[in-house]
Amino acid sequence: MRLAPLLAMFFPAAAVAGDFDPASVDLVALIECRADVPDYNGFALWLDGEPGAAATLGWKEVSSGNPFLRQYRLPAPLHVFGHETTTIVFTATGPMAVLHDIAAPELARKLAVPATISTPDKFLGEKVVVDETEVADGVTFVTRVALNVSTVDSHPGEVLAGCSYAIEVK
Predict the structure, then answer these.
(1) 3-state SS assignment for residue 134
(2) 47: closest CA among 107, 97, 103, 94?
């Protein structure tokens, strides 16, 4: 309860999870880094804090086989980055589509995402979309939004592509 006023100050869209309107979710925009951090945080707080939130969206949580990924099966295909999927995952910082029909290096080239690691066994790439620093009332806010393309052992033959959203308060 004490965290809510602090969250509301930093993330106005997340002021009260119960006030969140699920109809306002543009999942494709969230995955493709076309949303802003407060919009993502409002959605993430609602999804994590509202009982039955995923079911409200028609999503079914399924095991990801990875303790760092929360996975959902969608009720209808989603079109992201020019590909179709019915599976998404959430990392600690954002949503990612699970794609079956493209190799990670190929998708990264298409999205102009430079590779940090590119081996036959592992791909990891990131392109920073937003990197801003703002000072308000003596508090520094660092906003970072990055488009990520990766492979993970828990999802062999699949590519994870999506966005990470972060605000650091200094």
Answers:
(1) strand
(2) 94
